[in-house]
Write a structure and sequence with these properties.
The protein is an alpha/beta fold and 370 residues long. The protein contains eleven helices and twelve strands. The strands form two sheets. It has a six-stranded mixed sheet with strand order 1-12-2-3-4-5, covered by helices on one side.
């Protein structure tokens, strides 16, 4: 893992930095800084015991994300310059020199893009409205509003003040129901107790429901499930709840994460989650990862809400993320007779907090009769 993360650093040092006409002491100093930035996740592990929870002051987490993001983006820009020079050399059949001005422009562009990406990642997202028509939905639920939060990743990057702002905006949305589709945190309960405490204030007439994401399993899953329940969240662990309007029903089901068996915990069980549901009632499923959407569609689920992908974070990378998630990465998909909606996430993993063209979101769904 560390060797893979070091590759962009090597590309930048050897192909970008050292060819520049700079004093040797400047190059040596810059090389040291680049190596330090490239090992962000190693420093994170030293700070907390996990690469998923950098326990530095927030400004340092932001600075590390900017530096690491600049390094990765510059590596790709330098590769593009190298490939362009190689193509030109083959066409002209003579060596082609990359101008120093092109290298400097690549460095400046990488730094600006990384700064914009981090700024987009750490903001409190706006509410995005989406209308979903559900066949068989009772007129009693026509216009029902459901607010989805996902991938909060409460951490040193997303501390108490950020969580408070998210809760205030969520409550102001006046949704009938609030759901959280996993990845609440990065860190143990003792690390995050204060930062996640504002979730206790989430309010919706029909309650606040949630499922775990894969990151909950990295930090004492059982303790987190107890703590989240103590905060007033109804955890749907292979279970469902029934929302009623008179004689009409809407089923809200939830499953555990696909990563659970690898941590000795029960994996997702859709059969158990749907067992005993009112016959004929439309089903909304909460599943952190979107990979099993086709299975859910085959079981009669009408709407699946997922997260996990962070929307792919940026163009190009989103295609790679999609390949690891059965082709699902961001937005709305028709999967058989089911609608799948994959959130870009409300927060993002603090180990690579960059968003370019894939904004964070809090999504308010307006359900309509089909």
């Amino acid at each position: 893992m560390r060797l893979i993360l070091a590759l962009p650093c090597l590309i930048v040092i050897l192909n970008w930095l050292w060819p520049l006409p700079l004093p040797v002491w400047v190059k040596v100093s810059a090389t040291i800084l680049l190596i330090v930035a490239s090992q962000f996740h190693f420093w994170s592990r030293l700070s907390s015991g996990s690469i998923f929870a950098p326990e530095f002051p927030r400004p340092f987490v932001i600075l590390f994300n900017w530096a690491f993001g600049t390094l990765v983006l510059l590596a790709f820009l330098q590769l593009a310059l190298d490939l362009g020079a190689l193509a030109a050399a083959l066409v002209q059949w003579r060596p082609v020199h990359i101008p120093d001005s092109a290298r400097a422009a690549a460095g400046g562009l990488a730094g600006l893009l990384a700064a914009a990406g981090v700024a987009q990642a750490v903001r409190v997202p706006r509410i995005r409205d989406v209308t979903i028509a559900i066949p068989g939905l009772s007129p009693a639920f026509d216009g029902y509003q459901l607010l989805q939060l996902s991938d909060l990743h409460v951490s040193r990057l997303f501390p108490t003040a950020w969580t408070e702002a998210v809760v205030a905006r969520a409550n102001a949305a006046d949704a009938n129901l609030i759901v959280v589709t996993g990845d609440f945190i990065d860190g143990s309960v003792s690390m995050r107790r204060a930062d996640i405490a504002p979730l206790r204030n989430l309010r919706a007439p029909d309650g606040v429901f949630a499922v775990p994401g894969n990151h909950e399993y990295f930090f004492d899953y059982a303790e987190w499930m107890r703590h989240l329940s103590d905060l007033g969240l109804h955890m749907l662990l292979n279970a469902h709840a029934v929302i009623t309007r008179g004689e009409a029903h809407l089923v809200l089901a939830g499953v555990t994460d696909l990563s659970a068996p690898g941590h000795g915990e029960p994996g997702p069980d859709l059969d158990a989650a749907l067992e005993g549901r009112p016959p004929g009632a439309p089903v909304v499923l909460l599943d952190h990862q979107p990979r099993e959407a086709r299975v859910a569609a085959g079981r009669g689920v009408d709407l699946q809400l997922s997260g996990h992908t962070h929307g792919g974070m940026m163009p190009g990378l989103d295609r790679l993320v999609a390949r690891g998630n059965s082709g699902f990465v961001s937005g709305r998909y028709a999967v058989g007779g089911m609608v799948l909606c994959v959130s870009n996430g409300t927060g993002i993993w603090p180990g690579f907090a960059l968003r370019l063209g894939r904004p964070s979101e809090m999504t308010r769904f307006h359900l309509r009769t089909g």
